[in-house]
């Protein structure tokens, strides 16, 4: 439990070069905000009703009824606006437009590059300059623009949405600024022709759209103010994001469920389907209206034969694609993480890149575009083709290599790019796969809005094509034995490969559905399903998914999955993993206990028990609440009060006869005290001033709760002064200072004495916000069930009780430990299968832990709480 | 809260003609069983380990290492058997075989009917007899066989699986007998050619397979003994059921999720996909091996053109299909329920049908097959075709009616059946739709294993075809305006119609995926999605889904969905709906309190609080536990003990000098008492003997917990005798009687006095099973959140606490009331939109309630608890 605070500190300190970073504040802000909004909503509805009544009374004589009718109609219309389906239609429409416009702009950008490159065919060097400068400029602009406007827009967005849907509030993540940065940044990044995708960012953009639309529509009143409804809408938005990106409504819904949810509410299903279908429909209708297409069809339509799509004997080849894709997918995730960690660890590179923030994207782009330069190395890897063109050619119906002889290859259009006079088509494909593989892994680390799905999809298709072409060369007349010759269709293999590799990287099965919707053909369903499942089986046992990997890199709060059939998990119980030494406060404790508890622990919430003997759990209190209780008790206003009271008593003692109405005066004082107690509520939570400004970046303005390090672990002898420093710095108590008509004439010694006295008083919990029903588990609850409950309810910690008595606590951390296999149960170390292989990838977390300890020691030795500014500046310079 | 008991009684009394009926015992049995199995598993593993050690010591001299190695390998293999994927592969394989064999048998049955019918073409009357007798015999056999072997096998199975996956244990529902009854019953029922489906039953069969396989594999040890794992496996099995029925793995997974879950664990996703894919694969491979197919393709392959599947301007027609299907689907559900309720309510019909149990199926079959007799009325509705043939012809590529002239219709094969010399093809289609509609609604009420999906699917396809043919007749040259003529494809409309109507009836969107997988073409994705969503929107606002309707008819425990955008729900809080008058017991209460609480309430569990003043919730205790506590206290053994003790005391008083070792004797007595207390555990729960016999039908043997009516609400004056009657009838106390060496010489008056005395003692909760962490809510929890938590965790009730103090309780019933709109919040009656329309269907529940009250009054007036045998005999005769 003790490491919880340091985890959080790590979240604050750890600089992330490649990605933005967020601080957690599990649901607290959301709940307060919801409560506030609910109240204001009620107030509004009341005022509306009274307005109607006013109208009724005012216009009684004239056409009153008519007016009331109008008002009612208006109200009816407005209430209809509040219905889900209108929101979903608007969301779908908006996202379809955004998707189409982004695609259109990307197409123009890519055309412009081609035009430039084509126009300069007289001079290779100029051609090279044009080929290279164009993407470098675009990517640099994208990176710079995003960095300046909203660093949160960097990266895919799916990991963050997964975290948000788990109940964590990531500040600044769903603002208009981020929306603008993401859309423009994405357009430029993809327009550069780098191997980047639009799927992940579109999930984020759709969520942004939903959040903004929700905010906009709440102007009309209604229910846009409910926390759980917002979560539901965000889940639907994720589906829309994928749906309108690929015109794949079903695959979109499934993919978004798989990558963002752990438990999915089936009642929310229709929302996703509705919005995604509408969005995909509009997206394709726009293409028809723009005369790109004759009617609504698939994005990458294939024309494989229907009557005999594949032979039963080809299935082993498909299985091979699946297994190889599984290894490839795991390798991709590993490579991606390795690059990020390598750059982070190399202090020299790191410091240099910190200073020149845009250098890294520019360098990577330069490298990639140099290698794809068509007259150069690009000629061996179809470097001329854009991502879309490559995919279209890879999914092509025809066989490129008949009996190994490249001459029979009927090259039309873009397919020509795969032909090289000297080099076999197989070599081209292998080079394409190998080069694109590391290029994509590298490119996705650039700090621009970008996804990795599409590049991986293309690589998978190329791999499938390679296997397919090999099969076609091996069996020129097909495998089928009875009479009819059914030649092998390498395009089908490409479809299988694309689904398998993208499924392996993202750990999803629904890529299968996405390929069907993308190609418009479902004839290869069984091979695709087999390959995807095998790829998933292999990849999931080797590496986390790309999104989970990014979540770990970004240090977002997460709960690992239980994984495939780890049946040891069924035998671990909560009592094996819980922390027995629970920090608690009793109902009749004094402020000194509170003080001690705050000094020693780092938990965000503390258990409240009836008494140390009975240990009956009554609820939990947030740390911030306790801090304000303590600051209230030791604060300057209260001390001034004390001084005043003492002065009055003094006066009374001195002039007990001369001033007969001294009693009245003392009464006044006590009244004042009572008054002060009654206003406690408003000055109570120091979190609120920060929490009410959700638009400020969390990076730059850590709030009080998020800074538990600021409680210095000084010994008790000078606690008085230390406490004063600590708690009286809060602005609320500062603000109350000027009411003092008495001067603070106490010496430090007197203050310390006074504080000691104050600390012995019993705590008054009356105005304290207590969570009366923290989640409770029993000792015998299995790990499996605990995991389920934690992920179902988005818990952060749960108390373990035995007939009402508090006996332990389990937090996400313990659970994470238990699942990831570092907890020993009955002497046996529980490890997932193939964990040794995985260790090479994740062992860095231990290093991080030791680094954290160093950091923690450094913090301890510091006297000033604001000493960690260098890390802050580091953060800013990323 | 008071109605909870009567609800349960309703469950017992209410006779269901059409379906089996089950009593609930939420998780209790499952939990006990799991605990028992876990313990035995641990014991087994310990014994295995010791065996290895034995071997080690025994064979030390010789090839000991070799032997140990063998043992280890064996253990390793056995542990591998425990892995999920092996289980899933076996399940998939088994289900594919079952599905294929069932299909094969059905095909043979249908062929036999055709052969008989064809052979007798000389005499129409003989032909009619053959045509009619054959299905009547098959259906009657199916109904009788199912009734005798396992009445649980009747009906679809999806409603029950939904209930089981919600955590309710339905006894007898997953046994081998049920498996046999379901498979054979289903084969006969479908072989009769009646409009019945195999999807629903296959979900049940797959679950049966999973349960049996799980039981079988637990022989090899492993983790087949975990409750939550079993639930996960059942969910996967449901997917397999749909997947192997239609060779539709993706659609199967999605459909099973939609119809059985409210919250779906994404981590369980792969299980369904894996097993369903494997199963579908094997199912289709069997067809290839059987030379039915050349390679693996879709079940109902279509050959629509790929390049221009439909025009944008055809979309309104698709939307019309969707909306009409929505109304049609709601009508179907309504009609189905109406038929069941009509037959139940008509006392005369009911009584007659009760006596002749097999008459109803025979009559229905006679009616349906008479109407489809091909030379008779069947000629106007393609009565000759089986369900499969109709579907194949309906999905046909070609247009039947070109410009309204039937002559151009190129009839080949089965399509000929749609042609009639006198009648237009449109009339045939309309007749087919209308007749099949009510026939299917009627046929699915027959008490045989049967589903409604396939008939509805066919009707939907016919409706789509009708619209398509009309469009083709209206626009003979297609709608497309630019140059090329693209004629309209009515087969595409049939696909859309099939998906829309089946989606409307089942309230699912995944029927869209199922049609793609069934037809092997995804080109109509947008029309299908649009139609399915519109159909769902309409149907969901009018009627519950067919499965929910059956759940209500069968009175299975359920929780209604929150529905589409009822935003009033967001403003209701738990405090608005909770029951404030909670029955509780305190930690230091006496047995009299226990007695009173048991007499007045009907709750299955009671809250345990610290004291009536503090009201701090400590846990909850089951009613049965309290009953045994009380019976323990007032039971005969304890009274005999008392008599013995009294006799000893008497003796002691009489011969205080003559017998110096009387102290020893009294010590012996107290030892005996202690002994008796220590064996309390074994004689403790009267539920267990019943609970350990899960193989007996719940209908015939109501257990003690399920019979709360047996506590007579007699006044307190004769409570002694009443209590004796009540509690001493349990077999455990009976068995202990013969140890009495003292005779029971107490008079009734003395017994009453003694009981009064016993009742004043304080309750000893030491041996009582207390649930230490019942689920708690706070008063401000919203209805929305409460619903989520209830459905997430499968709760039955939750306590409402405020800082540990119990202030209320919410059960499923209150929640159901609040959601279904009979709770008024702030003066406004909250009702779902279009509720008035829905009322006509569900108002019968009120009638049922009044009937229940009558029943309850009758029960009250009865003296003997076993008086309700007539209702039992009613049940048996159904």
Q: How are the SSEs ordered, and which strands pair?
A:
The structure is a homodimer of 878-residue chains.
Chain A: H1 3-13, H2 28-58, H3 64-81, H4 84-119, H5 124-149, H6 158-165, H7 176-191, H8 199-217, H9 227-246, H10 249-260, E1 263-265, H11 269-289, H12 315-345, H13 347-355, H14 359-371, H15 387-394, H16 425-443, H17 453-474, H18 490-506, H19 511-519, H20 525-542, H21 546-554, H22 574-577, E2 584-586, H23 591-600, E3 605-609, E4 617-622, H24 623-634, H25 636-654, H26 662-679, H27 688-691, H28 719-727, H29 731-735, H30 748-759, E5 770-771, E6 776-777, H31 783-793, E7 797-802, E8 805-811, H32 812-820, E9 824-825, E10 828-829, H33 835-842, H34 844-861, H35 869-876
Parallel strand pairs in A: 2-3, 6-7
Antiparallel strand pairs in A: 3-4, 4-5, 7-8, 9-10
Helix pairs in contact in A: 2-3, 4-5, 4-7, 4-8, 4-9, 4-11, 5-7, 5-14, 6-9, 6-21, 7-8, 8-9, 9-10, 9-11, 10-11, 10-19, 12-16, 12-17, 12-18, 12-20, 12-21, 15-17, 16-17, 17-18, 18-19, 18-20, 23-24, 24-28, 25-26, 31-32
Would you mind describing this structure in some detail?
Two copies of one chain form a homodimer. Chain A is mainly alpha-helical and 878 residues long. Chain A has 35 helices and ten strands. In chain A, strands 2-3-4-5 form a four-stranded mixed β-sheet. Chain A has a three-stranded mixed β-sheet with strand order 6-7-8. A two-stranded antiparallel sheet of chain A has the order 9-10. In chain A, a hairpin with a 2-residue loop joins strand 7 and strand 8. In chain A, helix 9 crosses helix 10. The longest helix of chain A is centred in the N-terminal third of the chain and has 36 residues, at 84-119. Chain A is elongated and about 115 Å long. Mean pLDDT of chain A is 72; it is low at 1-31, 403-411, 662-740 and 822-878. At the A-B interface, helix 10, strand 1, helix 11, helix 19 and helix 20 of A face helix 10, strand 1, helix 11, helix 19 and helix 20 of B.
């Amino acid at each position: 439990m003790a490491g919880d605070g340091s985890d959080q500190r790590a979240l604050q300190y750890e600089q992330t070069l490649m990605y933005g970073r967020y601080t957690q504040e599990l649901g607290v802000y959301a709940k307060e905000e919801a409560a506030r909004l609910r109240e204001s909503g009620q107030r509004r509805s009341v005022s509306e009703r009274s307005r109607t009544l006013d109208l009724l009374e005012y216009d009684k004589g004239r056409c009153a009824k008519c007016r009331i009718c109008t008002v009612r109609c208006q109200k009816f219309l407005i209430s209809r606006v509040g219905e889900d389906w209108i929101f979903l239609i608007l969301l779908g429409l908006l996202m379809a437009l955004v998707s189409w416009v982004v695609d259109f702009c990307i197409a123009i950008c890519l055309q412009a590059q081609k035009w430039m490159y084509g126009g300069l065919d007289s001079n290779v060097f100029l051609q090279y300059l044009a080929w290279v400068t164009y993407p470098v400029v675009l990517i640099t602009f994208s990176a710079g623009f995003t960095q300046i406007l909203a660093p949160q827009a960097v990266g895919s967005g799916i990991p963050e949405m997964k975290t948000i849907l788990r109940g964590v509030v990531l500040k600044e993540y769903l603002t208009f600024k981020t929306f603008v940065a993401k859309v423009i940044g994405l357009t430029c990044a993809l327009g550069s022709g780098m191997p980047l995708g639009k799927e992940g960012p579109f999930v984020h953009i759709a969520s942004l759209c939903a959040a903004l639309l929700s905010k906009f529509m709440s102007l009309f009143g209604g229910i846009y103010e409910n926390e759980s409804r917002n979560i539901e809408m965000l889940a639907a938005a994720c589906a829309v994001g994928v749906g309108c990106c690929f015109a794949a409504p079903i695959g979109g819904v499934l993919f978004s469920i798989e990558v963002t949810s752990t438990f999915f509410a089936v009642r929310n299903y229709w929302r996703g389907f509705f919005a995604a279908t509408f969005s995909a429909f509009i997206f394709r209708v726009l293409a028809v209206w723009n005369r790109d297409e004759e009617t609504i069809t698939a994005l990458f339509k294939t024309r494989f034969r229907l009557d005999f799509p594949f032979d039963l004997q080809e299935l082993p080849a498909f299985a091979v694609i699946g297994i190889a894709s599984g290894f490839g997918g795991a390798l991709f995730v590993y490579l991606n993480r390795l690059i990020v960690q390598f750059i982070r660890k190399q202090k020299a590179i790191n410091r240099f890149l910190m200073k020149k923030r845009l250098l890294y994207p520019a360098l990577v782009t330069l490298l990639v575009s140099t290698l794809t330069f068509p007259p150069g190395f690009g000629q061996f890897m179809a470097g001329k083709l854009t991502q879309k063109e490559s995919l279209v050619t890879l999914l092509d119906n025809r066989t490129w290599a008949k009996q190994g002889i490249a001459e029979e290859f009927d090259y039309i259009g873009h397919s020509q790019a795969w032909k090289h006079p000297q080099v076999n088509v197989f070599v081209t494909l292998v080079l394409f796969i190998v080069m694109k593989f590391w290029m994509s892994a590298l490119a996705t680390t650039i700090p621009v809005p970008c996804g990795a799905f599409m590049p991986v999809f293309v690589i998978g298709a190329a791999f499938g094509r390679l296997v397919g072409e090999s099969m076609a060369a091996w069996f020129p007349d097909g495998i089928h034995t009875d009479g009819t010759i059914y030649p092998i269709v390498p395009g089908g293999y490409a479809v299988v490969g694309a689904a398998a590799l993208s499924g392996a990287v993202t750990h999803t099965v629904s890529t299968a559905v996405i390929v069907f919707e993308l190609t418009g053909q479902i004839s290869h369903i069984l091979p695709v399903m087999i390959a995807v499942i095998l790829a998933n089986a292999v990849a999931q046992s080797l590496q986390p998914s790309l999104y989970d990997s990014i979540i770990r890199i970004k240090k977002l709060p997460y709960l690992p999955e239980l994984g495939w059939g780890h049946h040891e998990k069924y035998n671990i119980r909560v009592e094996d993993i819980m922390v027995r030494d629970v920090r608690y406060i009793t109902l009749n404790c004094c402020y000194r206990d509170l003080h001690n508890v705050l000094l020693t622990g780092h938990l965000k919430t503390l258990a409240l028990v009836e008494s140390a003997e009975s240990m009956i759990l009554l609820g939990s209190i947030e740390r911030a609440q306790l801090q304000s209780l303590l600051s209230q008790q030791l604060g300057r206003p209260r001390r001034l009060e004390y001084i005043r009271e003492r002065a009055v008593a003094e006066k009374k003692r001195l002039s007990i006869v001369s001033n007969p109405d001294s009693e009245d005066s003392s009464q006044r004082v006590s009244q004042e005290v009572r008054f002060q107690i009654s206003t406690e509520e408003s000055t109570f939570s120091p979190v609120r001033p920060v929490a009410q400004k959700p638009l400020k970046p969390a990076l730059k303005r850590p709030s009080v709760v998020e800074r538990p390090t600021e409680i210095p672990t000084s010994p008790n002898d000078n606690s008085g002064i230390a406490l004063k420093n600590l708690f009286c710095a809060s602005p609320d108590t500062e603000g109350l200072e000027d009411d003092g008509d008495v001067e603070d004439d106490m010496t430090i010694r007197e203050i310390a004495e006074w504080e000691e006295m104050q600390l012995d008083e019993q705590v008054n919990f009356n105005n304290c916000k207590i969570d009366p029903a923290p989640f409770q588990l029993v000792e015998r609850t299995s790990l499996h069930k605990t995991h389920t409950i934690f992920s179902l309810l988005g818990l952060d910690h749960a108390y373990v009780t035995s007939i009402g008595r508090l006996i332990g606590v389990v937090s996400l951390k313990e659970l994470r430990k238990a699942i990831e296999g570092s907890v020993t149960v009955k002497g046996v170390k529980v490890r997932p299968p193939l964990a040794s292989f995985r260790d090479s990838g994740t062992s860095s977390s231990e290093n991080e832990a030791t680094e954290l300890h160093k950091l923690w020691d450094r913090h301890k030795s510091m006297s000033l709480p604001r000493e960690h500014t260098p890390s802050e500046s580091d953060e800013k310079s990323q």
